[in-house]
Request: fold
Amino acid sequence: MKKNLFIALAIIILVAIGGAWHMKRAKDLAELHEIQTDLANYLYNNYRIYTFNKEELDQLDKAYDAGKMTYPEYSKCLDEIAKYSDISKIEFTGFSVSPMNILKVQYTINDVLDKETSLDTISAETKNLIFRVGEHDGKGEYSLEKKKEATNVSLPENLVIYYEGGIK
Reply:
């Protein structure tokens, strides 16, 4: 009788611990989903990507390096040859925590630009994360640039691929 009671208590304790762990994991995944949604909307409303034709950029660089134009002229020409496109897809590829306890989000924009954003500051006023997304840096031929004027629309859910793997 005591053995059966002990087994029953052990099963109840294991189910309670497993249930609590499952509830915490579900809550954490919901928070990560919310972070991804907020970041996707922030990027969609405030940024666009751009690239350059390699030959045009090389010619422009040569002219500038040869002293044929000033920096303001060079900058204006860069703006003229840039090919801009709006964000049409965001795929989140992972979450990790740095040694300094900073949440890092990895994602890909339009299947061409891989980025990582560190989330370590919460606004005192809104209690929301403050996103710091680097500009004019990219691995490869694409880069991210802040729009002159932000929009205020939600990125359609079908254009976001969420990462459901938790934090590494």
